[in-house]
Amino acid sequence: MAQRTSPTERQRRLGSELHKMRLAAEVSAEAIASLLGVDRSKISNIERGLRPISPERLRSWACHCACADEAYVDALAVMAQSGRGWWERYRGSLPGGLLDIAEMEAYAVRLRAAHIVHIPGLLQTVDHARAIFGAAVPPLPEREFELRMVHRMERQQVLTRDHAPEYFGIVHEAALRMQFGGRSVARAQLEHLLHMSELSHVSLRVVPVSGGAFPGAGQTVVYAEGPVPQLDTVQMDSTHGPEFLHGEAQLSKYRMQLEWMERMSLDPGDSRNFVQDILRQL
Length: 282
Fold this sequence. Notes:
282 residues, alpha/beta, 434 Repressor (Amino-terminal Domain), Endonuclease, Chain A, 6-stranded mixed beta sheet, 6 strands, 49% helix, Lambda_DNA-bd_dom_sf, Cro/C1-type_HTH, DUF5753
């Protein structure tokens, strides 16, 4: 199998999990290389996501490391055989981090998001997204602007496809009151939120301003649950692009933050009423 030059976040994650498995079992890279019949440098490249590994070889790796968690190994085997997704059409035209977000969402079994100033990207209208991208500094080139728009709208299909992941969105009142694109765009955005919240697998929770302070108030967080807890991922936005975290301490921290915000938020029915009240004020 050919070596990769730019592995995706999912490919890097697979390699990282194999690396952790090997270290936990105190098995040397030389021993794994001998088992698989390859030279040691290829083991290093597999663990960095630079070289693919077949599901069969992955299972041999796990067996040699005495990993008895069948669900975890099965999930890794699925990662090893994952093909190219729709987002690959944008490779070379958009930043790789945006494609990694789409890939993460596509394979998640549950998505939990917390947004303070922005409406979650998966719940944005076209005009709201256009206003967000239009505020980029420096301004985006026209072609990239349009590609980002199309890419974001295509990402949203993850919530309307067959076997869509459960989506749990926590939105602060501040995001509901931001009039990106003006009054009419803001109204249409709130109406769209209400529409999406009616889907059986989508839960919208609002944190009112009166709720006061809470951990992570300045961050946008998406917690993507994998098929097993070991493969959960936290994705955070920053001005230089998305960041992906998957250390156990990091996952635990952000689970606690989201649970705190959930306790502070209104229940789904009261959240819908809250959005409707703001909509009537526009």
